[in-house]
């Protein structure tokens, strides 16, 4: 099978790493890829938001299977374009990807299928939204409806913060994504991520994880795309996961099918857990980054069989073979991230890390320049390890972090604290 993966982050490096180990994979191309991906796959430059370009590339390179990594090409309809051209594709249609691309749409689906989630109201006018905030009072969560690279959510712990959020979103801080606002009840509890493959009919859970969104140790400082993750997430017990599947995920999949827009791909349910019950915070229509890195390290080569069966609507015949183990990833980021950061600093020491199939350094923002590895993004490396216990995985990951020589980078030192 010739496979094309779209994307360039640590998530796509992890997907490529897992797919590549499966003997069914003949040729592997990642577009655009990065310096780490280039060590295991061909990288191609391609406008991954342009469906026609992607289809042409697939035809020229005899691609049999396309795996879409990030949300932007999904929302732009790239999976629709490749499927229409008869190319097997992992990733939802643009209509189905609205589960991530519109928070208001997700709420509508939750209402239609009675899935437990935060109470909410939708607004298109600032004054009406502000009157509502003054009436119900803080704490509230104010969200831009559309895709805002994870930045369109404002915690209104006080009324003033919530009101300021309205000005920010309707003031254009998130462009078109802020044409509508969703205001939600603030949910307390512990967050965890639940990953489910859906072929439109069958749902197959493929793992749980927990992310660390704040930049600083002890969950302090501004929010980021994620500074580390581990899998499994102990807070998502089997019983809570089963209830979330029955009450949230399966009803969503049935409702999407009923509307004629079946959901095919990975559904990433962000859950808030309290008193043994899960409520939906949000859906994403892609793997989490860096959650994918810990899932792929645990799944290995079978990931390709699972994604392929998902695209061929054969999930009912699949099962996941889990090792009873844990994986943990530490994100190394450029100093300054998530604010302004420097690009181009050199990273040394990766080649000297001992070969070990339980350890993997996935690259996010890297490039090769004159034989050196340089940082090109905010989140740069995902230092990932497996172990029989979470503590063992954590110790292995930080041993690698300590062996990497990158003065321009930093990481959190407490990834995994909640579970340990
Ligand atoms: P979202 O992009 O909708 O997942 O929101 C980003 C983050 O904001 C979530 O991961 C939560 O930490 C937090 N959040 C979002 N909605 C709520 C809510 N209704 N109650 C509490 N926290 C929330
Ligand atoms: N790590 C959070 C996300 O991928 O959305």
Automatic annotation (TrEMBL):
Broadest EC class assigned to this enzyme: ligase
Record-listed E.C. numbers: 6.3.4.13
Cross-referenced Pfam families: GARS_A, GARS_C, GARS_N
The UniProt record lists the keyword ATP-binding: yes
Molecular-function annotations in GO: ligase activity
Pathway: Purine metabolism; IMP biosynthesis via de novo pathway; N(1)-(5-phospho-D-ribosyl)glycinamide from 5-phospho-alpha-D-ribose 1-diphosphate: step 2/2
Cofactors: Mn(2+); Mg(2+)
Keywords from the UniProt entry: ATP-binding, Ligase, Nucleotide-binding, Purine biosynthesis
Highest taxon listed in the record's lineage: Bacteria
Residues in ATP-grasp domain copies: 107-312
Reaction(s) catalysed by this chain's protein: 5-phospho-beta-D-ribosylamine + glycine + ATP = N(1)-(5-phospho-beta-D-ribosyl)glycinamide + ADP + phosphate + H(+)
Family affiliation: Belongs to the GARS family.
UniProt name for this protein: Phosphoribosylamine--glycine ligase
